Structures are given as C-alpha cells and as structure tokens.
Fold each of these.
Amino acid sequence: MSSRPAQQEKKRLAAVVQQHFDGASADWANRYAREPQSMADLDLILRRQNVHYLIQPLLAAADRTLQVVDVGCGSGDVLDGLPRDVIRVTGMDFSREMARQAGVMHPNDTFAPGDATKLPFRYDSADIVTSLGVLEYVPNPIEALSGMTEILRPGGHMIVSFPNRTSLFRRLLSIERSAEKSLVRLRDMVRGTDRAKAYDSQYRHRQWTPAEAASMLNRAGLVVEEMRVNTYGPWGRLGRLRTMRSLSARISRNWTAAGFLTKRLACTMVIRARKPSHDN
Ligand SMILES: C[S@@+](CC[C@H](N)C(=O)[O-])C[C@H]1O[C@@H](n2cnc3c(N)ncnc32)[C@H](O)[C@@H]1O
C-alpha cells in the first residue's frame, strides 16, 4: 500500500492534470477544426487519421452496432466522422469541462466525467476501447490499461496511443528545452529573478519506446495487431514555422507504417490490440 504522502502527491498531480485540461477544453475542438498552429496541433490531427485507419476494418466487419468507449475523450473529436449507424460512442474524461464540451459538440454521443483507472462500465461490455493521448498523464498507466482491458469483451479491440521515446524529434525537443532552461537559470542568477521555476513541468508527461508500449499492452492481456506512427518534425522553435509544419504534414501523412526508420523518427505511436477470445 502506498504511504500517505505518496497518496497526497498523487492527488495533487491529478488535480494539476485536471486543472490543465479544464483550462484547455474551450479551445480543444478548434484544434481539430482549424489549420494546425503548432506541431502539437498537427500531431492531434495525424493521430486521429491513424485511429480512423485502424478502426475502419473493425467497422467494415461489424454485423451490429459496436459499443465504443473513448477513455480520456477530450472534446470527443477523435471519433468524429466515423459512421454512427455502426458505432455507439460513450466518452469519459477526467476533466469535467472536457466532458461537458464534448457533450455540447456531439449531442448524439454520451459523455461523462471519470477516471481512466476507475471505469464505470461492466466487464466484457465494450467492443472497442479507444484512448488517445491519455496514458502519458496517468500516474499508473498499467493499471489504466488493465482496467480498459477488463471492460473490453473477449475478441474486442483497443486503440491506444503512446508518445514515442525513441523519436529523434522528441529528443531534440528535450535538448532544446534543457538548453532554454539553463539560459533562463543563468539570467535568474544575474538578475536575481526566479523565472526558471516555470520550466519545471507541473505534471509528468511519460514517453515509451515502441517495444515498451507493446510490452505494456501484452502485460494488460492484449495481443498487438498493428502499429501506426505519425508526426515527423521539430516541435520547438522550428516547429512554430508554418512552412516547417506543412512540410511535416506532407511527410507525416504518407509515412504512417511502423518500420525501422519511422519508429525512430515519428513522435507518436498508435496501436491496435485485441483481447483474446475465450477459444484462443
Ligand atoms: C491530450 S488530451 C487528449 C484528448 C482526446 N483523447 C484527443 O485525442 O483529442 C488528454 C485527455 O486525457 C484526460 N485525462 C488525463 N488523465 C486522465 C485520467 N486519469 N482519466 C481520464 N481522463 C484523463 C485529460 O483530461 C484530457 O482530456
């Protein structure tokens, strides 16, 4: 059992994540609708493209309406554009504001606030569970994955994303951030200010290698079927240049298969995994 200070720290971090996404909720749907204004915007759009690619064969094979649970649904836009005669979507999000906005934007789907590690759904009830851009914020991602697997019916599928720790572009970003922070620290020392504090991320944003991501899914009891990758390009100062983003978009839209090179460059992995049926 974890100690009281550890639990309090967990609660504090959860509140920081919640507050962050409550604040981001008003603009979240716009990030899907407008031309990307940052590399992070572009990543959202490309990630959704990969989700749709991975989900399409499941919908094409469906002989009834599929129950889809979107964990950490944000504004509910990840599944936007998929035919609602084949899927029924229930989304839940840690941020009340996100869940509320999702309900306003998508009145035909169902949304509620909730925690990825305490899912309010029956075991073996969902045909598909999606969770995009969420695990990196969850204190215990294995626990969250196991919970999502429990609500999935045998033979059902999970589509989940992981930030790619081996990505050259993610490494460049962390070098750029450290260099910036060192400079600000130096300035703080000279000027007697305390600006470097703002560089300390208030919440942990985890990243995984492709092998680690696959192994986590295996540990949760799933079989990996396919991995897609997206977003090549610098996220820092260079990523703020529009030409850089359109170049990145052009390359990223085509290089989506997870191969030797793409797995070392692309920023995000999207994986489709299956919960084994009782008979296999
Ligand atoms: C980066 S956003 C992604 C939103 C959406 N899936 C998308 O791709 O547009 C991460 C979302 O995960 C939610 N989240 C973070 N921790 C969570 C948790 N423990 N349980 C449920 N949702 C969580 C946040 O509130 C936020 O809306």
Amino acid sequence: MIAAMGEFCAYCERPIEAMNLDVEHIKPQKKHGKLALTWNNFLLACTSCNTYKRHYQGAIRQTGILRKQAWPHLDNTFFAYSYDQHGRVTVSTGLGSVEHQQMAQRTLEMAGLDRTPAVAASYQSLGLVYDITSRRGKAWNKAQIALAAYQQNPTDIQRQSILGQAEETGFFSIWMSVFAAHPDVKSGLVTTFKAAPACFDGMGNQLNPRQIGRI
Ligand SMILES: [Zn+2]
C-alpha cells in the first residue's frame, strides 16, 4: 500500500497509537541533511516493525540495500503480497519478474512480516510483544463476517459500518482481499485508509491493484 499519511503502520498495517509510533527516516538524516525534513522521506511504522527492521539491517548491512527493496512509499506493496485467513503474508505469485519478487521478499524479511510464532518467541527478548499474526487472522475473520452481512444486505448503511470496523481494526490489505469482489466497498477502503488511488485501476470500476512505480 502506498499511504501518504495514515494512522497505520506502513509495513504490518496495524493501527498505531501515538505511544507506539516511529517516524522512520528512509535515508539517514546525517547524510542527507535537508532531505530528512521532506514529507516523502518519511514512513510511519510501528515500533515493532521498526525495531525488527533495525536489527535486520544491522545484521546484513551492505551498500545499496535501499535500492533493492520494495518500499511502501515508492512501490505498490499492496500488489506485492498475498494474505490469508491464518494471518500469513507471502510474496504474490502475480509479480511479473524475478527481480520484483526478490525486492518484495527482502522487504517481507526486513520488516519481519513473515515472522512465525517460533521466531516471535526470541523476538520477545527485545521487550516487544509480537502478536501480529494472530491479529491479522482475527482481522480476516472479522472481515469475512462483515462480507457475509454485506452479501445479505448490501446497503449504504452496511457499507459505512464495514468501513468503520475496518478503520478500527486496521489491516487494509486484508479487508481489500476479503472484499475483492466488491469495488464499492474497496473504493471506500482506499479513502478510509488514505491509500493512494493511483495504486488501483479504476477502469471498469473494478479497483484492482495496479502495477506502478518500480513494482
Ligand atoms: Zn508494524
């Protein structure tokens, strides 16, 4: 997802409270001076993803790493990943080239989006609670129930109620996946989550993810 400024982590998509918020400087502040003050140089990330990312980058630091990954503010990362009912995130099979698949995979590893409960156990030694997989699974279930209700009663009131639930729950990509066949709900989700409309193909009112930027 490309989100200019939302209240959700750019990586794991959970809602972020002010207490649990890191403004991430994509380029090191010291090296780039004024650049660090420009808006498009920021990503909002939760402390969990940001901490994991710092450790990951520290472990594999190498020249040019920034260019080799998919970034939520530059690339259509919604297009890059698939979500399922178990709360798992995997690289989408729809990505055209091996290079793009590798970029998406590196970002997945960097932010720890593929962390398993076993990995999470050691991660807790860092003092952070990792519960994102189960939270994603719960969000999927909630979205499925909302979908069933909407299929029975596809009214505007019902749609507004779904958007309210989605905003409270977070996990934009999960709601977009579950409501894949309902462009009216999807367009409301794009607005609610402040996702960039340019990421989605509005032609034919299908609102499918569009391949833009580098991915
Ligand atoms: Zn996060």
Amino acid sequence: MTETQVSAEDFALIQQQVRSFIRTKVVPRETEIMREDRIPDDLRTAAAEMGLFGYAIPDEWGGLGLDLTQDVELAMEFGYTTLSLRSMFGTNNGIAGQVLVGFGTDEQKKRWLERIASGEVVASFALTEPGAGSNPAGLRTRATRDGDGWVIDGRKQYITNAPIADLFIVFARTAEPAAGNPGIAVFLVPATTPGVEVGPKDAKMGQEGAWTADVAFDQVRVPADALIGGDEGAGYKAAMTSLARGRVHIAALAVGTAQRALDESVAYAASTTQGSERIGDFQLVQAMLADQQAGVLAGRAMVRETARAYVTGEDRRIAPSATKLFCTEMVGRVADLAVQVHGGAGYMKEIPVERIYRDVRLLRLYEGTSEIQRLIVGGALVRRAVAAL
Ligand SMILES: Cc1cc2nc3c(=O)[nH]c(=O)nc-3n(C[C@H](O)[C@H](O)[C@H](O)COP(=O)(O)OP(=O)(O)OC[C@H]3O[C@@H](n4cnc5c(N)ncnc54)[C@H](O)[C@@H]3O)c2cc1C
C-alpha cells in the first residue's frame, strides 16, 4: 500500500495555486496557444516553478510526491484548459517518469529524476511503432548486446514531446517472445546520442501546442547502465504498469474538460437569445445541459474511487481501464453536446468548445484505445470468473 506523502492541508494549497494559475493565467491565453501552436515560455517557467514537471515524482527525487488520489484532483484542474498545457509536463510525471520511478535503479533515479522533476529535462515515452500501437508486444525495435552495452535500431511514431525531449524512454526487443516473457527491455536514451533522429513535428487534429513526432534509432549505442532496472525482462511490465496509472490520470483530465465544456454551455445558454427567448429556457437545451452535468458527476465520482482503489492496491487493472473508457467516451459526448448548445457558434474557431471538441478526441485513442480498454476489462472479468470455477 502506498501512503499519501503530502498532507491534505498542503495538498489543498497546491490545488488552489494550480486552479488559480490555470483559470487566471492559462485560460485567457488559450487562443494564443492554439494560433501559435506553442506554450508561451512564461507559462512554462511558471509551471516549472510550481513544481508541475514533477508533481507525481517522489519528494526524495525532487518532486512534489503526490499520490494518485491527489494527481487526479490536479488533472481535473489541468483538464479545464487546453490539454496541451498538461501535455508539456505530462510525460515527465506520467508515462515516462513513472517507468523510472517504478523500475529504475537508484543510480538511474539519481541521475535523472531530479532534473525531470524540475523541468530541466523533458522525458518522452517511446513505445508505439508502425504496426505496434494497440499491441506493443509486437514491437520490432531491437536492442542487441554489444560488449558491455547495447545497440538500438528501430523507429517509433507519435511520440509526445519528442521534438523537445532530452531523454527517451525506449522500449526495444532483446529476445523473441516466449511463454510468459514478451522479450522487451526498456532503455534510457539521451536525445543527443548519435543515431537518434527526431522527425518533423506531426500535424494533428487538435491539442495545438503539444507536439509529437517520429523518432528513428539508427545503430544507437548505449552503455550497460542505460538498461532500466538492469533487467532485460522488465520492459513490458514497466510499460503496462505506467500505462495503467496513466489511464486514471487521463480519465481525470477528461472529467476536467467535460466540466469546462459544461460551464461554457451553461454560460452560453444563459446569455444568448433567439427572438425574445433565452436559449437556456428551451427545455431541449436544458436536457443537453442535464446530460452533460450527469456525465461530469458520474465521471468525477468514478475517477476518485478508482484512484483510491489504485493507491490501496485493491484494483490496478480493471478499474483504471473501465474509468478511462467511461470518462473519455463521456467527454466526447459532452463536447459534442457543447457544440450543439452553441449552435453555429460552436463550429467557429476561437470559441472554446470548438477546440475542446477536437482536443478530447485524442483521449479515446492514446494510452490504449476504447476497444483495448474494453478488452482489458472484459478479459479480466472472464478470467477471474473462470479461475473461480
Ligand atoms: C497525439 C498522440 C500522442 C501519442 N503519444 C504517444 C507517446 O508519447 N508514446 C507512445 O509510445 N505512443 C504515443 N501515441 C500512440 C498511441 O498510444 C497509439 O496511437 C494508440 O495506442 C493506438 O495505436 P495505433 O495508432 O497503432 O492504432 P491501432 O492499434 O492500429 O488501432 C486501429 C484500430 O484498431 C483497433 N484495434 C487494434 N487492436 C485491436 C484488437 N486487438 N481488438 C479490437 N480492436 C483493435 C483500435 O482500437 C483502433 O480502433 C500517441 C498517439 C497520438 C495520436
């Protein structure tokens, strides 16, 4: 069982500071971020000063040391604005950082975590490849022993923060898959290592300001101590563990964005008229607001319960996937309704719900698609029932 490292009083202050930062400093600049496709430097600096590059990294390694029940509360705050802000420090705290926290040696943690937590180093999680997204066990990037070290060859795609990364957490095959061993290891590869090539940044549907790119590894030599945990067999488990935790965080982000879409919808319905009638007085518009509100309340309750059960160790598999599935589908419906409440205005750039509609589409795709979450949940339920027969 993981204990909460930060007291409720201290956490309340952190949450208040983050809420104020998001709502007074970031929300007013959403259009600028969207138009320029970048997070302004002063917002990055402010986020780093608040410890946001390391809120989920233990305090002994320079982070704020929040547990998952606290992480999701912050994620609901981050979800209230452009999701690209969260993406800037999301890989450091989440999928990339948690691999080091959970599976790194003390030496590796000492070398990297403090700089990751401060934002000096941006870490990227490089798992997905062409043909190996939903099924990462099929990845083809290879790491071959070379004296004491390793040589890595292969190509990754859609890697968040790759264009600004200092460190790649790279999953590579060291052996053919065998029963109980997918043959996947994970390595620490500094972006400046000869043979690492980051492609041009991808042109995406939404989340302007958050960048992804392909990363090619061509005869990339790394020393023996680049192997995370010094354990060739740790890679697949490290990826799955980090992703399961990340799913609860993504679900919380979805709830935060759904709340924003609801607030925008209510404000619009209350202030806009057709003829002499307020659109919020139309019962069919009220019905849309009610469905949005119900989704937000259900999602928030589910996220909090799932984070609690994750921290106690009661459920780190079924609930994270079920919660990501529910909340990311929920925010898709809520965002769609938000556009509907806004009528034609909802289709116009620079109206927040237009951006939200595009931004949240990604949540159903990465860190496991909705189909993969269904397979995880359904498969685990049936396996458990069969085992009890
Ligand atoms: C903006 C963005 C950022 C990303 N960031 C990262 C990152 O930082 N690091 C990283 O490693 N990856 C990252 N990804 C990759 C992401 O996790 C994958 O795109 C995702 O897991 C889906 O894999 P895929 O694209 O190969 O699609 P596919 O797996 O080919 O899926 C295509 C369709 O087939 C369905 N499908 C696949 N397998 C099954 C099955 N067994 N049963 C039923 N249906 C199935 C899927 O649900 C989907 O509908 C990112 C992707 C995007 C778009």
Amino acid sequence: MFRPAEITNTVTRAAKDAGFELVGVAPVENSPELEYFPQWIAEGRAGEMKYLEARDEQGRLKRASLAYAAPWARSVVVCAINYNTAQPYSTEIQTQSEENRERGWISRYAWSQQDYHDLAMQRLRRVEAAVRNAAASDDVVTRCYVDTGPIVERVVAKYAGIGWIGKNTCIINQKMGSWMFLGVILTSLELAPGLPAPDRCGSCTRCIDACPTDALIAPHQLDSNKCIAYLTIEKRGAIAEEIRSGMGRHIFGCDICQDVCPWNRKAPATNAEEFQALPELVNPALEWLADMDEEEFRRTFKSSPVRRGKRAGLRRNAVIAMGNSGDQKFLSQLEKLVGDSDEDVSESAGWAIRKLRDPN
Ligand code: B12
Ligand code: SF4
Ligand code: SF4
C-alpha cells in the first residue's frame, strides 16, 4: 500500500542524513508567482540567458509551468544547503580601508574549491535513492536538478516551505537566512506537501535601496541586464559603458542585496569542509586577476563555479574594477592591458584609464 506521509518522513530523514539543512515537499500546481515568468521573458529581463526561454513542442515556455516541463511529475522534493562561512560581508570588507581599493569581490557562493552543483548533486542523489527505495516500485520516475532543470526553483522552494521569496528575489528562511543552494527532485509520487512559509519582508526595502545598479526594478522583480551577478558571470563580450561604474569592484557575482538583508545578520555559518573559503578568493587582488594566464586560471579555479565566467570574462571584470577603484597605481598595468589581444580586456582597459584620470 502507498503511504505518502510515511514516505515523506523517510525522504526528510534521508535529506538530513545527506547534509541538507532544510527539506520540504511542494505540490505540482500553478502558482501566482509563475504567472509572472512569461512577462519577465517578454520584457527581455533574462538578458542573453536564452536557455531560460526553452519551449515545449506547443511553443509554451517550459519554465512557466511544471505541467509543460514534466507532465508526469506529481510532487517536488526541495532540499536546501547552507553555504555561508564566517567571513565578513562585502558591504563590510569592501569599504573597510584604503588598502582594500586594490581588491575585488568574488561572491560568497564561489569561494570554495568545488562547484556547488556537484556538491549538492552528490547529496541529492542519496535522497533520490531513498525516494525510490521507499516507494519500492520500478515505475516511479524521478529527476534531480541543481540549477539546470526547466524549473523556477525558488517558486517550488516557497511552496515546499523552505522560505519566502524576498523582495531581492532570493529564498529566505527565518533561521538560516538566504545563503543557501537549492536542489530539487521531481517525482511521479504523490507525497505529502508542506505549507508555504509566510512572507517576512514587511515594509523593509533595504535590498532595493542598496542595489548599486537598480537591478531590482520593483519588489520581487529583477532585471538581469542590470544585475552585477549577470554582468560578471553570464554576460559575454563588452559590458555597456553606462553600467560599469555601478559594478564597483565586483568581479564574479554580487552579494549586496543579501548582505544588507536583516535576515542574514545572524545567518549561521556551515561547518562543512567542502564549503570553506579558499583565503585567496576572499577579496582577491585585482592585479593578480587581470594578469592571470590560462594555466593559472585553470589551476586556481579547477572545479570552482568561477570557471563559468571564463578567464576572458574574469580579466574584463578585473579591469573594470580597477577603473572603479580610484587607485592610480593601476594606470601602468592598464596601459599595458590596452594592447591585450582580448578585445574586451583591451577596450575595458581604455575605459578604466579614462575613469581613473577623470572619475566624474
Ligand atoms: C537565471 C538565474 C540567475 C540570474 C537571474 C536571477 C533571477 N532573479 O532570476 C542571475 C545571473 C542574475 C542570478 C543571480 C544570482 N543567483 Co541565480 N539562478 C538563476 C536560475 C538558473 C534561474 C532563475 C529564474 O528562473 N529566474 C526567472 C525569474 C522570473 O525568477 P525570479 O527572479 O526567481 O522570480 C520569481 C519570483 O520573484 C516571483 N515573484 C514572487 N513574488 C512576486 C510578486 C510579484 C508582484 C511579482 C511580479 C513576482 C513575484 O516571480 C518569479 C517567478 O515567475 C536559478 C536556478 C533555477 N533553475 O531556478 C538560480 C538561483 C535562483 N540562483 C541562485 C543564486 C545563489 C544566485 C546569486 C546569489 C549568485 C550570486 N551571488 O551572484 C545571485 C542572486 C541575485 C538575485 N537577487 O537574484 C540560487 C538562489 C538561492 C536562494 N536562496 O534563493 C538559485 C536557486 C540556484 C540554486 N540552485 O541554488 N541567477
Ligand atoms: S545581486 Fe547585486 S546587482 Fe544583482 S540585484 Fe542584488 S544587489 Fe543588485
Ligand atoms: S532586505 Fe528587506 S526587503 Fe529585501 S529581502 Fe531582506 S527583508 Fe526583504
């Protein structure tokens, strides 16, 4: 006999054993949040991330409904893992001292040696095995995703009770804050769903006020074209000049709208060895990154998420950050970089020199 509540309990235990701090089950049904997705795409808010526009055979946006992406699915198991470490926030470190002007910012999630996709996926596979074992049937269908599936993971996370969707668009848990990765398992099993977590943003607007590029165009609405995380990680080629000053010294990702969130003030740090930060990646020297050759890039970021931005992107970002640093010592290095064989590095170096000479 099929026992949804019992199987759900087994799955919850398996997720905790696998190292996930939070786990919940979402039902498969359309939600008001997903109605916004087609509009977001139509307004061009996804920038050049074309994979978000994937459509099914009838031309419907797959991510707009689980019924399009996985018609066989009946429940979604959502797991969350804490990646926060004890290091200070970018909003503290980056403004601390004059000496810091020569350093850039890599996002908190990318400080460890290993890519979070792999770390979370290994754990998710253990939970998937528990789902299949508990169901004791060969007919059960399951699919695991960390990031890459045709699903808006934050929406299912909300309905699984992992947290609420903050005005900064991140999932926030009352106890854990928002420094977490999500992993999802779609299953054909009808499990016992949880309840959505209540919204605790209230009248706060700190994230919207702090975003240096105005990427949070309204509560819960992000324009990727303006988001530093998108510009530094996903955007290939030249970055529009008018947005470069707002990027500050960010060279991979951005944490500001989470750093300022009151729910992250007491966010617990993880003890998991795999998530501990490599010291050289926390607030790294811009000079080092801008001059990095292919061999050193490969060695330093061997299994790290930073590989996604490619060496060319990382150097382009470091050069823009030099322009924003106000530190004249970079002028001589930038003058050399104007002759760089990479067009984006060379053009950005020209911009950075002009910016250092005439900051206004
Ligand atoms: C594309 C993408 C990005 C893009 C776009 C971000 C975005 N906000 O959409 C970029 C490159 C900018 C990005 C940045 C980051 N990302 Co990202 N990203 C994704 C990815 C692959 C898809 C997201 C997506 O579908 N976006 C579409 C838009 C429409 O969805 P949304 O902004 O989440 O909006 C929903 C709600 O806000 C909602 N909504 C809720 N209430 C309301 C109310 C109203 C009135 C309205 C109109 C809408 C609305 O509507 C939307 C759904 O239709 C997911 C993984 C996945 N498969 O889901 C990871 C994911 C969202 N990213 C993640 C992370 C960690 C980050 C960064 C923190 C990394 C960094 N430090 O640089 C930043 C955070 C920036 C931010 N504030 O969002 C985590 C989030 C974990 C968490 N705690 O929430 C995810 C889930 C990856 C993972 N598996 O862990 N990311
Ligand atoms: S990640 Fe940075 S740029 Fe993007 S919305 Fe948040 S504060 Fe703005
Ligand atoms: S900073 Fe304030 S408004 Fe923004 S997500 Fe956090 S609690 Fe919500």
